[in-house]
Design a protein that fits this description.
Layout (H helix, E strand, L loop, with lengths): L9 H11 L1 H9 L2 E2 L6 H21 L8 E3 L11 E3 H11 L4 H29 L7 H23 L4 H15 L5 H9 L8 H31 L14 E5 H26 L5 H4 L18 H9 L4 E4 L2 E4 H29 L15 H20 L2 H8 L3 H40 L1 E8 L5 E6 L3 H8 L23 H15 L8 H10 L3 E3 L19 H4 L7 E3 L1
Length: 571
């Protein structure tokens, strides 16, 4: 008889293995390899912030009362004692001053919301600038776009629940947007607010949306997003041993799970520290909401500041048609900006794929400098966003720096169109300059500062070969040539019915690629290292001959090596 004691989990695990093949599933995924780079932590910060939101939000639901019924405050905060307010605002004060740890949890919840949207935004920017949205990850990019939009809505609904003067002003902003809809705007406003603003039902209606509907949808989309990451395998930055056919990094268990678990507690600790030390949304200072009052210097949370800026700098354009007033000054910046962001983000992967004609799968990321037009578009969009953000605080800027608010507004009306163009041109030229420098380093090596004089009197500078890993990183991208349009007729003289579309596509392709500095071909590298072009390479011809094939992109996986140390490669 065996003396071994059966493990208490043995039977349940055996049951699951017999029914769903648990052992095979776990064995396949538990050793899955994930690459290691600091920028990948941005997505993890977003995920962990959402978990913190769920935990802290559950705590707050135990005491918050989503009711707009009027009560008289009799709590410990003396300046508001005896003031009429809604139960929602009174319960927020109760959480802040009476519940042990309540104020800390409120601030952790609010800071986690800020961090969640901020991390999502930075994560999408990293994805955009490195080309991680390309085939086969277009669907995951769309999921990320939807998650960002839902995060904005979720943040706004939570911001509105306390029913203080600041959040009430935000709801008045929404009421104005709804009324800006032609013809049906008034009906929409009455439906949402249950009558004339502010009504007495909007907080009870927002509450289940904030704590149930939107979190459930976001959780489902995050699950689908992570499942696609696992299915497609993670992208990785170029380097020795890294190709489109493998992943070089660390296995899920034990390395990655240990690192991810530790990073969660770091994010949680930093968020708790921010909640404890940095005051956020002190609703007792603002007081309860009153439709007759607006706080001076009212500002929304940072992620809605750009929409607020659009409203503030938009000219007073209105159209009167058949007795109806169409308020373009509200409709365009309110719904137009949010809609523009959603549409542009959703369509960009497909637009770039159409322009470049690239239908291949990509698992290696781009260096932003190697895609000057894409990078320039991204910086132009960030400039547009930043200028609108400044517009959202034009009153604060005017009072702080003693400027005319009208001058700031008129400056921004022009700057939001001119600034992105200037940012685009500067960024594109900067990227091309960096490409030119990389090309020179590949061809001639690294400058050593040593100048030698030959017996015949010729003076040359000694260039040392680049480090193999650096050279691999610089050269591991494809040569990108503009598409050719042809003559528009085939060999039999028949006109191409799609010639105009192809011509437009070729023109867009030239716009993307005509100014790029191409990576050197193998022949160019050999010629440069053979005659020196006025330079001398130390230690012979260096390594660059192994770094480029006939198409000019990296082909030296075996020569350079397939990742050393503790990294693993998953094929």
């Amino acid at each position: 008889m065996s003396s071994a004691t059966p493990h208490p989990l043995g039977k349940p695990l055996e049951f699951l293995d017999d029914r769903i093949g648990l052992a095979k599933l776990v064995k396949k995924n538990i050793r899955k390899v994930f690459p290691d780079h600091w920028s990948f932590l941005l997505g993890e910060i977003a995920l962990y912030s959402f978990i913190i939101l769920l935990l802290s939000g559950t705590f707050l639901t135990l005491w918050f009362k989503p009711s707009m019924q009027e009560v008289v405050y009799s709590g410990p905060y003396l300046p508001l004692r005896g003031v009429h307010m809604s139960e929602a605002f009174a319960s927020t004060l109760h959480i802040s001053f009476d519940v042990r740890g309540g104020l800390l949890m409120r601030q952790i919840h609010h800071w986690a919301a800020m961090l969640f949207i901020g991390a999502m935004t930075l994560h999408m920017l990293r994805t955009f600038f490195t080309g991680a949205f390309r085939k086969p990850r277009e669907l995951n990019w769309l999921l990320g776009t939807i998650l960002l939009q839902l995060g904005l809505v979720e943040g706004f609904t939570g911001y509105s629940l306390p029913d203080d003067l600041l959040s009430g002003t935000g709801l008045r902003f929404i009421e104005g947007l709804l009324r800006a809809f032609p013809v049906v705007g008034t009906y929409l406003s009455y439906f949402v607010f249950g009558g004339a603003f502010p009504g007495d039902v909007v907080i009870p209606r927002l509450y289940p949306v904030h704590i149930l509907l939107l979190p459930g949808v976001i959780l489902a989309l995050i699950t689908a997003h992570l499942a696609l990451v696992v299915y497609h395998k993670h992208t990785q930055f170029p380097g020795p041993g890294r190709t489109n056919q493998n992943v070089v990094g660390y296995p899920l268990l034990p390395v990655y799970m240990a690192k991810a678990g530790g990073f969660f507690f770091i994010v949680f600790g930093v968020t708790a520290l921010m909640g404890a030390l940095f005051q956020l949304n002190p609703v007792w200072v603002y007081g309860p909401y009153s439709p007759s009052q607006v706080g001076a210097g009212t500002q929304p949370d940072w992620y809605m500041g750009w929409v607020e800026g659009g409203l503030r700098i938009m000219p007073n354009w209105e159209t009167h048609v058949a007795g109806f007033t169409i308020s373009w000054n509200i409709f365009i910046p309110g719904f137009g900006l949010l809609g523009l962001m959603a549409v542009v983000l959703a369509l960009y992967p497909f637009i770039e794929s159409w322009v470049t004609g690239d239908r291949r799968e990509h698992h290696l990321l781009d260096r932003p400098r190697n895609q000057p037009v894409r990078t320039a578009f991204g910086v132009a969009g960030m400039t547009f966003y930043g200028l609108l953000w400044i517009g959202g605080g034009n009153d604060i800027i005017a009072t702080t720096f003693h400027l005319s608010i009208n001058s700031i507004t008129w400056f921004l009306r022009f700057a939001v169109f001119i600034g992105p163009v200037i940012a685009f041109l500067i960024t594109k030229r900067t990227c091309i300059g960096l490409q030119r420098r990389d090309r020179e380093r590949l061809l001639h090596g690294r400058e050593t500062g040593i100048v030698m004089r030959a017996p015949n009197g010729e003076v040359s500078e000694i260039h040392a070969p680049l480090d193999p890993e650096e050279a691999w990183t610089i050269s591991s991208h494809d040569r990108q040539e503009p598409l050719e349009v042809g003559s528009g007729v085939d060999a039999h003289g028949v006109a191409d019915p799609h010639f105009r579309r192809r011509k437009l596509r070729a023109r867009a392709s030239r716009f993307y690629f005509s100014d790029q500095m191409q990576v050197p071909t193998k022949a160019e590298l050999e010629a440069a290292h053979g005659n020196g072009h006025g330079h001398e390479l130390a230690n012979g011809n260096g390594h660059a001959r192994e770094l480029a094939d006939g198409n000019g992109h990296a082909d030296g996986t075996k020569q350079v090596g397939a990742g050393g140390g503790s990294s693993r490669s998953e094929h």
